[in-house]
Amino acid sequence: MSKTTNKFAPEVRERGVRMAIDHERDYPTRWAAVVSIAEKIGCVPQTLHEWVKKAEVDSGKRAGVPTEVADKMKALEREVRELRQANEILRKASVYFAQAELDRPFRR
User: Fold this and answer.
1) Which among 13, 15, 56, 92 could bridge 61 via Cys, Cβ 3.0 to 4.6 Å?
2) Residue 28 half-sphere exposure, CB side, CA atoms within 13 Å?
3) How far apart are CA 83 and CA 18, in angstroms?
4) pLDDT tens figures, 8-65
5) Which long-range contacts (CB under 8 A, 24 or more apart) does 88-91 make?
6) What is the DSSP letter of 29?
7) From the CB of residue 35, how many other CB atoms can be counted at a distance below 10 Å?
8) Could you tell me the CA-to-CA distances from 17 to 11, 32, 41 in Å, in that order?
């Protein structure tokens, strides 16, 4: 589970990203556009800048791991961790029952 909360609705994020990209040419730098638009949508510029970078990665305009792939990797890593824990529990249980079988008195 994520340690951060998504304070902004997906629509606000998408609109902010779209505005930053569309109006970038109206400002001397991308950062200037991001600062201006961040004030309008009510977030800090660093947050909007991260959203823009993530949108560029997801669209293929920037190198990096797309959100969909990152989410899938997280889910698979979680599954592997759970399976390893289950295997460890089963291993310990088999050792316990094998030892119990050896400790049992022999009957003819």
Assistant:
1) 56
2) 0
3) 41
4) 999 999 999 999 999 999 999 999 999 999 999 999 999 999 999 999 999 999 999 9
5) none
6) S
7) 17
8) 10, 14, 10
- In the block, residue with structure tokens 């990665």: 57
State the Rg of the chain over Cα: 26
Instruction: State the pLDDT confidence band at 1, using cuts at 50, 70 and 90.
Output: very low
pLDDT of residue 92: 97
d(CA 37, CA 23): 9
Listing DSSP states for 48-89 in one string gives HHHHHHHHHHHHTSS-S--HHHHHHHHHHHHHHHHHHHHHHH
Distances (CA, A) of 96 to 25, 64, 73, 106: 69, 47, 35, 18
Which pLDDT tens digit goes with each residue over 67-106?
999 999 999 999 999 999 999 999 999 999 999 888 888 7
